[in-house]
Amino acid sequence: MKLWKPLLSASLLLVASHGVFANDSPGSGLQAPNMDSITLEDIKSDVYFLASDEMLGRETAKPQAQIAAAYARSRMERVGVEPAGEDGSWYQTVKLKYHTWDATPSVAFTRDSEKGELKYGEEFVSTGGAEASLEYEGEIVFAGYAVNDDTRGYNDLDGIDLKGKLALILRYEPTTWMKGGRNPFSRNAYLQTKEALCRAAGAVGVLMVTGPESLGGSDNRRQLPSPEAGEKSPPLQLDLGEETESTGELPFFHISVPACDKLLGGEGETSRVQKLFDQGEVTKRPDLSAMNVKLTAKSKVVHVEDRNVAGMIKGELDEWIIFGAHHDHLGYGYFGARDARTAMGEIHNGADDNASGVATVLEIAEALAKSDKKPRRSFLFLTFTGEEKGLLGSSWYVRNPLIAHEKVYAMINIDMIGRIDNHKLTMDGTSCSKVLDRVCKEVAPLFPELEIGFSDKPPMPASDHWPFFSKAGIPVFFPFGGMNRLMHTAEDDAETINYEDMLPTIKMLYEIGWRLSEEQAYADYTGPVKEAIGPDGNARDPNKSTDTDEEQEQEFSSAR
Ligand SMILES: [Zn+2]
Q1: What's the total number of domains in the chain?
Q2: What is the distance in A from the centroid of ligand 1 to the CA of 416?
Q3: 495 alpha carbon – ligand 1 mean position (Å)
Q4: What burial class does residue 491 get, using C-beta atoms within 10 Å of its C-beta: 0-12 exposed, 13-18 middle, 19+ buried?
Q5: In the beta sheet, which residues pair with residue 320?
Q6: How far apart are CA 497 and CA 492, in angstroms?
Q7: Burial of 339 (C-beta count, 10 Å sphere; 0-12/13-18/19+)
Q8: Distance, CA 243 to ligand 1 centroid (Å)?
Q9: Same domain, 183 and 314
Q10: Strands 237-238 and 82-83
Q11: Element (H or E) spanning 78, and its range?
Q12: How far apart are CA 189 and CA 174, in angstroms?
């Protein structure tokens, strides 16, 4: 699951009762066949394999993500599921791309007879991978904290001309403005704010130092943000075959304090100048007009491929229930890790996120494939790559569906059900379909060992169900064990998983999937895609309106 802030504030409808355990004995009320084939052993062996150190955290577009895909394939093939990928295969190729440096960026400068240069990786690094290229030679201008705050009558850009020049700035904001608490900074301190301000002033690029007086400024003397993070695990995008239009953002580089001292003309200069600006003495900015700086940073696009896995069990009808889960994770934690400060470079196994979800898809596929009952609707089992890098595998699938969207009855996305706390599980998003909501609420009481919560809010845009809901107009729900302390840390290991609650959860999801397959009513859908058509050929959305899809999507993604 990708990191996402506002969590369930919505009212939770809880379903609980008196501790008896569900089984498929006649009295249990369960309808799905072969329920007992779902076992703790199977779940454990899937999670232990996928979340083993050998899988190196299953990073997208790395060999281990491919092995995870091959594992899902072999598990499904072995139990009699059929391939549903491209050209009769088990896979769907996902085309991706990223930026990297064509050559190591360089910065050289002269001042009168003095010549100097900055070493990439040691004295300067790029902040966002290798997105933006720059070949520049010319002036550099010191622009303070690059803050313009009317409320304080403070404007670093007052009286300076950045047009066509390189800006040298301080990170964050004047230390005298810092507040206490978890976030001592205002928007002035955000990189995006500074980048936008410098871009608006016509600068061609930015060199930024974390001043020694600032938070973390002290350890800056030793290290910069590790350049390798952006280079070892660059931001990925879908490769849609179009020319990469640049983000338009300025090339932005972190520089170290020693590097900044060099540019300002002497050791301790950064600290001296920072103290001046902290006192508001912006007019005492250093004059760098005698300098000439040559900066070369050329980026190139690299195209890579990864794959989703697709298996199917055909039913009576050409109408489909999709069970999906992402099989990728954070690799060595160079991106998206919540413990980057302490554990970057360590394998992040992602047992809960999301070996637990993949195990769920595989166990349900096995139960159904090995049952002697043919389901009414058909089932498509998908495991996605690229979720942690931005829902890439599921977004690619929705752009290139293997089964036409209008034939899909519903999509159930499983992400992080391995660390259910106190038997509490949330069925996020069922409110987008009255039929889905009803069926889930009919089944939940059959699993009294779990405490199932329902939300009246639309599904949160935090995992692979989102492209199905927001782009394909398919009813979805997302069982979720909740954010937890170990999420996106190097401690998310197979030994820490709550298998005992995973077992009834998987059985419950199978039961729900089976009942949706048998359900007579077509699943309605309330969401941003107003024109969505269902397997019955009718509009899914009971109350179609004139608002454009974009307006509706905006309304839905901001409704959380
Ligand atoms: Zn995640």
Answers
A1: 2
A2: 8
A3: 18
A4: middle
A5: 378, 408
A6: 8
A7: middle
A8: 29
A9: no
A10: unpaired
A11: helix 63-79
A12: 9
Tokens of 385: 């790559």
Shared domain for 60 and 170, answered yes or no, is: no
pLDDT in tens, 437-456: 999 999 999 999 999 999 99
Distance from the alpha carbon of residue 305 to the mean position of ligand 1, in angstroms: 20
Distance 384 CA to ligand 1 centre (A): 12
Answer yes or no: are the C-beta atoms of 426 and 455 closer than 8 Å.
Answer: yes
Whole-angstrom distance, CA of residue 58 vs CA of residue 60: 6
Element (H, E) at 501: helix 499-518
> How much distance in Å is there from the Cα of 3 to the middle of ligand 1?
7
490 is written with which tokens? 């190097």
Check whether residue 277 and residue 381 sit in a common domain: no
Q: Tell me the C-alpha distance between 24 and 29, whole Å.
A: 8
Q: How far apart are CA 395 and CA 398, in angstroms?
A: 5
pTM > 0.85 = no
Say whether the peptide bond before residue 220 is cis (omega within 30 degrees of 0): no
List of residues 6+ apart from 441 with CB closer than 8 A: 13, 15, 430, 454
Comparing CA positions, the residue from 325, 425, 426, 334 lying closest to residue 68 is 325
In this structure, the answer to whether residues 533 and 478 fall within a common structural domain is yes
Whole-number Å distance, alpha carbon 285 to ligand 1 midpoint, is 44
Q: Which of 329, 332, 336 is nearest to 344 (CA)?
A: 332
Domain range enclosing 448: 30-98+304-559
Three-state DSSP at 502 gives helix
Indicate the residue among 241, 265, 297 that finishes a domain: 297
Q: Which of 301, 265, 249, 283 is nearest to 126 (CA)?
A: 249
pLDDT digits (tens, 9 = 90+) for 296-331: 998 889 999 999 999 999 999 999 999 999 999 999
The pLDDT > 70 percentage for the chain reads 87
> Can you read off the two tokens belonging to residue 109?
């400068």
